[in-house]
Amino acid sequence: MIETTTRATQCHRIKSMSVVGGFLDGLTVNLADGLNCLIGHRGTGKTTVLEFVRYALDGFPNGEAGQACRRRVENLVKRNLGDGRIRLAVQTRDGLDYIVDRTASGEPMVLAADGQPTDITINSGGIFSADVFSQNEVEDIADSPESQLALIDTFVAEEIGSVQASIATVTARLQANAKAIVPAQETLARLADELSTLPSVGAKIEGLSGVGGENAQEINQAQTHKAMRQREQEAVETADALLGEYIDWLNEGMGQFTTSVENLVAEDILNGPNGHLLQAVLDRMRKVGEELDGIFRQAGARLTADQNALATDATELKRLHHEQELRFRDLITRHKEAQGQATERAEWETKRNDLLAKQRQQAELAERLDGLNRQRRDLNDQLTDLRDQRFGLRLSVAERITQTVSSPIRLRVEQDGNRARYASMLVDALRGAGLHHKTVARKIAEALSPAELVEVVRCGDEGGQLSRIGLNDSQVPKVLSALADPAVLLEIEAVDMVDLPRIELQDGEEWKDSLSLSTGQKCTTILPILLLESENPLLVDQPEDNLDNRFIYDTVVDSLRRVKTNRQIIFITHNPNIPVLGDADGVFVLTSDGTQARLLNSGNVDDCREEIINLLEGGEAAFVQRKERYNY
What we know:
Layout: E1 13-20, E2 28-30, E3 35-39, H1 46-57, H2 63-81, E4 85-91, E5 97-103, E6 109-112, E7 131-133, H3 137-143, H4 145-154, H5 157-195, H6 198-208, H7 216-253, H8 256-262, H9 267-270, H10 275-334, H11 336-404, E8 409-418, H12 420-430, H13 437-447, H14 450-458, H15 465-468, H16 475-482, H17 486-494, E9 498-507, E10 510-513, H18 519-530, E11 538-541, H19 549-563, E12 569-572, H20 577-581, E13 586-592, E14 597-603, H21 609-616, H22 620-630
Parallel strand pairs: 3-12, 3-13, 7-11, 11-12
Antiparallel strand pairs: 1-2, 1-4, 4-5, 5-6, 8-9, 9-10, 13-14
């Protein structure tokens, strides 16, 4: 049994991993709090142990790289676990003990320390996390700004997670807002077009109102009332249609819930081991259906009564209209000078009534659109504040890493510096516009923020900004036309401008970006950052790859000895300097016969001295010969 060290700070910890079935069947590894090293010949399952931990915790990165990692690990698990299971005993930073149980075909289950199931979800509950890196992932971080940003976020995971959740909520509300704004704008544009004829229709009616001589006032009033009768009739018909729509909806919904419930639980399930519980669920759902049907019937009866009352009102209104129409016809008959224009004026009044109804619709829609635009401004302000908070957290991490890391490394973060997503959106929008859309999209993305571009398009580029960023006279109108679609503008307005990290290594007098470094320099740059203090366990597969022993001794070992008192570290290694000079708290020696792996030995460095010498030093003879050759 390995003794654990006393923790100076609270942090997450993997207490043990056990496997039943597959290549690692029967393996149990009780991990120490500080530095743990897994050693053994190649093919003994060391990498499988690390990936089993990652798989059990469902701890995969985001983005495309994370999806590729998930596919790789899932394939490894299928090959090496079969129908078995993985169990991790973990302890949270708050001292709470859980067991994580997972099979190759199932999701992780979180159990209490006594093995009883809980309703906690390991991959979304935020109760526990670990930082896991396979052989190539350390180097990949140096090549990927997306991975570098994810690395920065691990140091403030809880705070970033909270801000990202808020950003996702606001973004979803912005998307819903855009879906409401676009059709409202389209309808308003159509109504404005139609209402442009209202003055000419009014003028035509005004011209016809001059007939009648000394009886003109009486005739004009009668004509106005005739037009009003049409609008009154339309109002009653609209009210009746609205009531009828809701009655139909209630009738269609009647019994729907109950019918769906009957197909909810199959008969064989009701006869299964948990049938009594499923029967209770079914009975409860049936009762809900009966209550809903009762509510629907009550609402339907109320609406039907109101529709009947409305029918009575409509009959009375029709009677009044008949009387008024007879008086109108009598009036027109008495005044021959009005007879020629009565029919024509009635037609024009009908047109005006239709336009006035659309004018009311326009006013209501304009008011609603104003509200949606106010809502959008508020949401955009919220989004800006949240993105500023996110950047502030990342900037603080970058400054802390630069000040803390032992190597000549500096880390900077440029807010909204990665415009690839924005540029890609512009490429799609400009495709088919008759220009070199990729080049134009890049120029715009580099020169104008999304908000600036939206303003430029909406004002028709009055200030000539597009020309000033290098677009020629033929390109400007094509860009304005291609981006004029309201849906496109709203999408551009809300695009997330990704923060851009820059990790640099000092090489002599020059600072070099990690993207331009050699493989060894990339690992030299990233590994010291991974070895900083964190509440998460750190698991790395062969961190010494591509590193020289001098760097391992000067930097890696020094970091391990300093950090292991405050952070659990689990390394797979073939380098003796890491367990020996790092004073590993736990060494685990794996062996395999090719079909089955097992734990050959475990303990501290002294307990596993023989295996360390044979596996990592090349054997005692090789060790002694080197000592003699170096004359030490």
